[in-house]
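User: Fold this, then the next.

Assistant: Folding the first:
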Amino acid sequence: MAKQAQDSGRKNVSAAAPRAVTKRRLPIWWWVGLVLIGVVIAVTFYPGVVEAFKHPEVEVHSPGMADFFPEAMVWDGTVFQFNRMVLARLVAAAVLALIFVIAASNLKLRPSRGQVLTELAADFVRTNIGIELLGTRRGKRYATILGFVFFGVLAMNLTGVIPGINIAASSVISVPLIFAVFSYVTFIAAGIKARGGLQFFKEQLFPPGIPPLVYVLLTPVEFASTFIVRPATLAIRLLANMIAGHMLLALTYFGTQVLMLGLMAMKPIAVLTFGAAIIMTLFEIFVAVLQAYVFTLLTAVYIKMSVEAH
């Protein structure tokens, strides 16, 4: 018995030994993401510096509000005017559609890494936003709408770090406004479906437990707050964050170019601004994801407020 216990103890030690020395490796997607971010930074920064050295007489472009109103590529002066902002929207929409079409057309019982990542992202919106806020039944019902809002806003935001575009499609009011209108149409439709048209508007405009005379003052305020201020703030919040992100990112790249082309004594400082440019690129990606999450979360909150009795 003692010998058997000793042998089993040795086996347990030998079996546990490899686990103790095994190092935890970072997943492949982490390294792929890191490489992609490096490529984005290099492709964005390198051409501007090289061109500036080749043509020092050309003034380095300084960031400003003109960035959000680029010159037309084709059809200038018409309703079909095509510029860099329109290109950003088309690229974002095409890439997003392509990703989900490929993922949906190659579903397998033993999923690939791409399918796993796609399913994880979709399940995050469905579970952590939809079901968490609206409950299982309504969360599943509105999962498609919430997914459209999240991934649509995210794709438009991420164009701000795509080389050659370098500006978020959502940094002009038209895109945030369209998503805000879509979210609020969903809010109204969900409320009418769940509560009935008359009951829904009554609950939104005439909160219970208030003296009737107070409604003279309160109802216009509730109308403005519910149907004007909320969708406006939904759009303006996204717009302001993406404008600020673009300006901060553009300033770090602009500062690095200016310092590298300046006096010899100023060139070492360019290392600091280039480091800031890398940090700001990562921060811009973080803000893009965060704002898509906040926008979708608020959409779910508004749906919840419309379908539940007050």
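Now the next one, as you asked:
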Amino acid sequence: MAANHIVDLMNKFAIGCGGVLVIVLFFAFVVGLFFWGSYNRLVTLDQTVNKKWGDVQSVYQRRADLIPNLVNTVQGAANFEKSTVVEVTNARASVGQVKIDPNKAPTDPAQLEQFQAAQGALSNALSRLLVVVERYPELKSNQNFLGLQAQLEGTENRISVERNNFNTAVQDFNTAVRRFPTNMIAGMFGFSPRPFFAAQPGAERAPAVNFNFGTPAPAASPAPTGSP
């Protein structure tokens, strides 16, 4: 009888251990599933940020590619202001000196700030060049210049759109990286928040590069007069 009792206790113990093991394995499976899903989501968001960064780089490169033809065209005008052309050329060269991976979004805010400052200087130089063009009638009717101007306007609009798309992707990624409990997985696998493009005065609109030559500016509306 004693032997049977011992066997019975051992069977119960084995069943109990088996039950505990099943519970442990179930929780391990759930945790593993959570880690797997969260990690894959972070990878997807990270790749989306990199894709949007590549789109930003593409439109900036498109603008840079238009500049040599634009410079050559305006230089053909008689007595065109050399200093303005030199400013654009130097600004374009400065952009090329900012070393940044075109396929991977930066993680260093200072690096993105440097890139943004160089691109902003080029935007300002282009705006000044196009304002100077108003003094040269031969350029206002130059079909090559007008075509380049239209392409530049479209590119500036695309830059604004792609920067906004990039910031949206970064916001989604950063939210996931900081939100509990995904932040623990992000820390384990080296996912760190990405910097945004900083807003600048007038950043809600693309630089004005389409000039309606020959069209007078609209007259200012008279100020309303108060009741006597």
